[in-house]
Amino acid sequence: MAEVKAPSRPLSPHLQIYGWTWTFVMSGFHRATGFAIYLGSVIPVFWLVCLALGKGPYDFATWILGTWWFGIPVLIAYSWGIIHHTLGGIRHFVWDFCYGFETKERFFMAKATLAGSVILTVLLWIAVFIAR
Questions:
Q1: Residue 8 and residue 116: Cα distance in Å, rounded?
Q2: Backbone Cα Rg of the chain
Q3: What b/e readout covers 103-131, taking b as 16+ CB neighbours within 10 angstroms?
Q4: Could you give the residue ranges of the DSSP H alpha helices within 1-132?
């Protein structure tokens, strides 16, 4: 019988080899926010179903989503996830046109994605509270 030899090429490195860089972390955040948006889509569906069911369920949905201990933090996190994922998608769209691949540009875009998502989320919620 033939003997099986292990390949002579190096094995793929793991997280112990790779360093934590901005682009690496933002890639993880992009994936995580995509998954969170997918799961968080239950929120607008819940609200719309309660709206369709009548005044009682709608009042309950409005109350639960307006509470400071649950609703507001969840809605802020959900909106941050949508904004962050959108900015990450714009970053990837720029890369599709072969721009921004230099090291400084990649790190700048990664940091700008995080900073921009936080700033836009804060501005969004300031506008929400002013409009209330």
A1: 45
A2: 22
A3: eeebeebbeebbebbeebbeeeeeeeeee
A4: 22-40, 42-53, 55-66, 71-96, 103-131
Maximum CA extent, the chain: 78
How many angstroms separate the Cα of 8 from the Cα of each of 12, 15, 129?
A: 12, 21, 62
* Cβ–Cβ < 8 Å for 79, 17: no
Query: Using CA atoms, how far apart are residues 26 and 91, in angstroms rounded to an integer?
Result: 10
Cα–Cα distance for residue pair 118/19, rounded to 1 Å: 25
pLDDT digits (tens, 9 = 90+) for 70-116: 999 999 999 999 999 999 999 999 999 999 889 899 999 999 999 99
Distance in angstroms (rounded) separating the CA atoms of residues 106 and 129: 35
Quick one: tokens of 38? 């997918």
Q: Is the pTM of this model over 0.85?
A: no
Contact 101, 91 (CB under 8 A): no
CA-CA-CA-CA torsion for 93, 118, 64, 40, nearest 10 degrees? 30
Q: Is 70 helix (H, G, I), strand (E, B) or coil?
A: coil
Is the torsion defined by CA of 15, 16, 18, 23 positive or negative?
A: positive
